[in-house]
Model the fold of this input.
Amino acid sequence: MCATCGCSGTAVVRLFPADWAGHIDDRPRHEHAHRVAGHDHDHEHHDHGPGQHDHDHDRDHRNGAERILRLAEEPDERTVRLEQKVLAKNDRLAELNRDWLRQRGVLAINLMSSPGAGKTTLLERTARELAGKVSIVVIEGDQAAALDATRIRAAGCKVVQINTGAGCHLDAEMVAQGLRALDPPGGSVVMIENVGNLVCPSLFDLGEQARVVLASVTEGDDKPLKYPHMFRRADLIIVSKTDLLPYVDFDSRRHASDVRKTSPDALMLQVSAATGAGMQEWYDWLRRRILPPED
Amino acid sequence: MHELAITESVVDAVTERLPDARITCVRLEIGALSGVVADSVRFCFDLVTEGTNLEGARLEITETAGQCHCKVCSQDFEPDGPIAICPCGSIEVKVVAGQELKISSVQVA
Done:
C-alpha cells in the first residue's frame, strides 16, 4: 500500500524520450529510484505500508473486546506530544524537489483539473508552438495507461508517465522519480499533469513553483463553489475550451465572480487550445516565470 | 476519498516516530478549511491501523474552526462553510486559521 496516499496500487514511472519510436510497453515496471540527482530522500519505500513495517511488539492479536478491556486496565499510559503535520513527509519531499528545481533553474508547473478538461490538449499545443523557444518536459499522471504520454511524445516532448494504480493524485515522491528520469536542463519547464481530479491533488505539494487549474466551459460554471479547495490554492486559472461557449450553458461572468470568491488573488485566462485563442497570454504568463539556470 | 490517504499518512508518521510503542490513542487536529472530512478519517481509521502498532487505538479528533481576516474592513470572522466571504460583503479575505491537519499527540501504553 502506498505510504502517502493509501492506495493499493503501485505507482509506475515510465520514460518516453521525445525521439523514441518504439511501441508503448504496458507491462508494469517498478523503479527503485529514491534520489533526485544526488539528493538523499530520507524516507521509506512508498510500496511499504505501515502494515508491512517490521517492528517488534510483544502484544498478541487479541479480539477487539478483550483488547479494549486490557487497555482500560493499563495504568501506566503516557502521552507523547508529536505536534506534527499529517502530510509532513510529503511536504518535506516536496521542499527537496523545490530546492533541486531552483538550483537547476527549472520551472515546475502543477497542472490540475477534472478529467477531460483539456490539460493534455493544452500541453500538446503549447509544446508544438513553443518548440525551439522553450524547452518543455512533461510528467504525466494517470491511474493507468500511457495514452497521454504517447500524445505528448508525438508533440515532441520528453515525457514520463506515472501510473498511480488506485491512487487519485500525484505525490512528491512520484514527482521526484519523474524528475530523476527526465533530468530537465536549466532554463526548461517541467509540466506536471496531475491525475484528473478536482479534490485530492489540491492537498499534495509536489514541489512546484506554480499551480495552474483548468476549468473547461463544458463542465459548467459551478465548479469553483463546489470544489473550493482546488481553486483556493491556484496561482492561475485557465478557462478552457472557450470555442465551445456558444454551444454550452456556461455563464462566464458568474464563473469569474465565483472564482474570485474562492481565489481572490489568482489570475484568470480564457483559452481555446483548439483555435489558439488566448494561448499567447498563457505563453506570456509562462515565460515570465522561467528561471535563469544557476551555476 | 483522500481521507484514506490522510489516515494512512497519520499511521505512517506515528510508526515512524514511535516504531516500538503500542499506541492506545491518537489525537488529531483537523481544521474546518483543511479539505479533510473528520468523519471520513474516523471511518478509515480502524481499517488502516489493522496489523500496525496503532491497532485498537482510540481516535480523538479536535475540529478547529476557520478564521479569516478581511483585507477591506480589517475584521476577523469565522467563515460559513468553505467559501470565505466577509460579512461586509468583501471577498478579499485571507485565511488565518482552520487549515490545520496535524497529529497533536499519542497515548502510549
The longest helix of chain A spans residues 88-104. The radius of gyration of chain A is 22 Å. Chain A is about 30% helix and 20% strand.
